[in-house]
Amino acid sequence: MSTGSITSARELLPQGAQRKALRRRRHLKDLGTRSLVTAAGFGVVISLALIFVFLFIEVVPLLRNASIDEPQTFSLDNQTGSTVRLSLDRHREVGTRFADDGSVIHFRPESGETLGRRQLDFDGANFVSFSAAEPRTGLLAFGLDDGRAAVVEQAFDVTFPDDVRLVEPRLDFPLADLVVTVDPEGASLETIAVQRGATGIGIAAATSDGRLLLTRYTSRRSFLTGETEFTRTSYELPRPPAQPTRLLIDITMRNLLVGDAEGNLHYYDISTPAQARLMDSARVLAGNGAQVTAMEFLLGTVSIIVGGSDGTVAQYFLVRDADNVNRITRIRDFRQHPGAITTIYPEYSRKGFLVGDASGSLGIHYGTSASTLLMKQVSERAITEASLAPRNNGLIWADGTGELHTAELWNRHPESSFSALWNRVWYEGRSQPEFVWQSSSATDEFEPKFSLVPLSVGTLKAAFYAMLFAMPLAIFGAIYTAYFMSPKMRGMVKPTIEVMEALPTVILGFLAGLWLAPFIESHLPAVFSIVILLPLFMLGTAFGWSRLPASVRQRIPAGWEAAILIPVILFTGWLCVTMSPLIEVWFFNGSMRQWFTDVGITYDQRNALVVGIAMGFAVIPTIFSIAEDAVFNVPKHLTQGSLALGATPWQTVIGVVILTASPGIFSAVMIGFGRAVGETMIVLMATGNSPVVNFNIFEGMRTLSANIAVEMPEAAVGATHYRLLFLAALVLFGFTFILNTIAEVVRQRLRTKYSSL
Questions:
Q1: What average pLDDT does the segment 704-710 reach?
Q2: Which of 98, 230, 302, 720 could form a disulfide with 85 if both were Cys (CB 3.0 to 4.6 A apart)?
Q3: For the CA atoms of 568, 574, 580, 581, what is the dihedral angle to 10 degrees?
């Protein structure tokens, strides 16, 4: 090379100042890129943390127990008698006090200002006992000492004169007359119960001479005159074994519950009063000499809350036994009160209740969640009467001082507890404790069922069957594509499978629910035939191919052998579908689905099999793409060295390729599993959304994500149901976080273990 050429080349090279500037620019670019990547990484972490914080903030109120503010105390003007009933309207603007002398006082709860006074005329008789029907009815009964009862109904009228809310209390006499006859013999009604049902009003009473009476009033309104006529029928029931202390009638007028002085609870079937029978008796208080001192139905009059003189509080309801006979069954116990139970008041719209005792303590409990939400001593004297506001945001009580006390109440989410969410719960109307999610119903008496177990199991069930379908196809396909397939064929197969990932899952769910599910139901034998015959036909084809002359096999270029299986797969599928009706006739009496039913296997059209296939197609591209890249990127010197040492290609794949690529394959599986756990649209459209707890492949399920998608639009903002859906999202977030953490730990260990290869 000439000297001139060397000089020209040197002139083209950067000089010292230029090299320094280039290094500075390169450093700035590296620093900027590093900072950008770091910031993006921190951004992802911060975003996930903020998502967690947001979900947790919505869930926190579920963890809060009930609380009451500082109570206000006042005395009513011209107050007489002892308090037997207190009530508040839904706006807590008007309260009512009923006394044993028949006086009724309406007042302002926030100040004690008297709004009005009324005297019930007992027609010369004296008060002996008192009872109230379910709070929603407003029905009250006073038992008198001459065999009669005074029945009154309280209500509140709300109007808006001049756009200002005005609440006016009202007293009605539902039986036309205030005082009605219960015992024609005139014995004192020592204990009384009243209830309103679809068939009228029922009154039960225990008399001073030990008789148990039932009186029913049915009404009929004249079409012509508009007048209401009442028909009265009276019955004498079998005497209870001991003196009754509390009586209850349910709203169906079919069941009568009697609590006695010996701590027993008795159940009478009064569906046919003339043939009423004592069906069952159970000891509900274990202490010697303990008495049933308070007893009330919860909302819907299915569950009975029993309070004893020993401070115990327990829930019972009737459960049918193997002989189809209702038995009194103890369902759950609540925290024991420090004194004898004096009053129980059920909530208007939920399965909770307020309890007062002789020590001056108030307790707020909730049936379904088996929770004692509040236990607080509010007086030095016994609580004689207490009640809740209809909206469960306030309470009022009376003690032996003659004063009334009111307080604000916070008790928004009593349905939520660890026991109710994650343990078996014995719900009303069921024969045993179960895991159930059922958030709404058509009746006001409905008991919400918020177990997250069916949703969590459904999520894992859907992901399990999807991975059971997707993993073998995706991983084995990835290994074959990356290692055995020709580059040209791989260039067609890999993009085609990856394009599948762009297919909207709503389309897969639509096809699975409306086409695949009915097709599988009609061709069940074909499904099982394909699972059995397809591998056999593929192995048979491979064996036949290996026995062909070399001159024939060499006509197919290396790496294109998989194309031979395409017609085999299509033929096997066609054969199995064609033979499906014949297989059903030969082996399953014409219907494989009915055969499943006969052997005790439940079959739903939209089931885990359908979901597994549909979701598997959604997950396969993810697993295949990552696993194929991991296998393809195994260093060539490892595979070539293995082959050079005499190993066959399959031995090389098993002993070298799979081990080296195992971190990537495991990552592919876990990413696919995370995708399956969080899938929404396929499981929403193809599962039937039945929240069941099993892994039966022929039954559906409901997943956490699908449940959120279905119920969130209908959930009232801030309600328990709404916050529990956020809790479900938090559980789903926790699932994916735990799975990804475990996957990363395992992947790092695999990488460390096989990095030396």
A1: 93
A2: 98
A3: -150
